[in-house]
Amino acid sequence: MAAGLAEFQAAGFPMGAEPLVALDLVDTEALEAGKDLIADEARHLAWWALQADRLPDAPPPASSATRRLRSVLRELFDAHLAQRVPAPAAVDDLNATAAAVPTSPRLDGWGAGARAAVRWHDDYHGHPALAAIAGEAIRLLADPRRLGTLRRCGDPACSMLFLAENRRRVWCAANVCGNRARVARHYSRTKA
Questions:
Q1: Rounded to whole angstroms, how far apart are CA atoms 138 and 69?
Q2: d(CA 30, CA 14)
Q3: 3-state class of 141 per DSSP?
Q4: 95-115, pLDDT tens digit by residue?
Q5: Of 67, 100, 115, 171, which is most buried by a Cβ count within 10 Å?
C-alpha cells in the first residue's frame, strides 16, 4: 500500500503522496530554506522506500541521478508556472531519462488469474524508477487540462508544488503552510 502524507511527514518530508511521484521528487528540495531533503544517503533511501509501491521494482538509483532528474523536473514545472520556455537541455534530459528504460507489455498468469503487466528493459543502463517518474512528468506536461492544476504553495516562503485537484487547495499541506496561515491570521486579528 502506498505511503500517505502522514508517513512522509513522520519520515521528515513536509510533502509526499501527491498523485505523481514526480511532484514528490521536486518537493524533496525546499528552495526557500536552501534544504536538500535527500542530501544524505539515509534520507535518499528513506524517500525511495516511501515511494516503492508506486514505482517499478528496482533498487534505488544513485543519489546523483535522483538529484539530476529532480533538477530537470523543477526547471520544467517552474517554467510552466512562470509561463516561460524552459531550458532546451531540460526537455532533452527528461526525454533521455524516459527513453533509457523502454517498456513492453507482458502477460502474467493464465485464465482467471491472468493480468497485463509491464516489463521494464534496463538494457540501456537507465533506471526503471527514474524512467517511470520521467514518464509521469511527460504525460503531465503534455496534458493541458491536468497541467492547469499544477500549483505552487500559497505561502510565498514555500517552494512546494502540487496538483490542485480540488480548486480550493492553495497550500502544499494543510497541516504545514495552511496551519501557518491560520495562525498568522489569528495573530493579526488578536493583535489588532
A1: 12
A2: 9
A3: helix
A4: 999 999 999 999 999 999 999
A5: 171
In the chain, the N- to C-terminal Cα span, in Å, equals 48
- Give counts: helices (H), strands (E), the chain: 8, 6
Of how many residues is the chain composed?
192
Residue at grid coordinates 495573530: 187
What type of residue is 16?
G
The 10s digit of each residue's pLDDT in 3-60 is 999 999 999 998 999 999 999 999 999 887 789 999 999 999 999 999 999 999 999 9
CA distance 180 to 155: 9
Q: Which domains are present in the chain?
A: 5-191 (1.10.3300.10)
CB-based contact 51:58 (threshold 8 Å): no
